[in-house]
Amino acid sequence: xxxxxxxxxxxxxxxxxxxxxxxxxxxxxxxxxxxxxxxxxxxxxxxxxxxxxxxxxxxxxxxxxxxxxxxxxxxxxxxxxx
Length: 82
What we know:
Blueprint: H1 18-28, H2 35-48, H3 54-67
Helix pairs in contact: 1-3, 2-3
């Protein structure tokens, strides 16, 4: 599932637990994405919705953690050939 900026946050509600939602979001990021910046975009999107759903609020907490202690620049995720 591709979680780009056009994907509404409400689609996360269908994913289940907050941790699952976070993983779907994280692994849906492009390889060269800046995780902290992408997390800030999602936090802003959540804040713009008037939702107080427990799962969404827990997801917001996980996204905040993703903004902490991130090195500058995009993440690099080397894919292994099998």
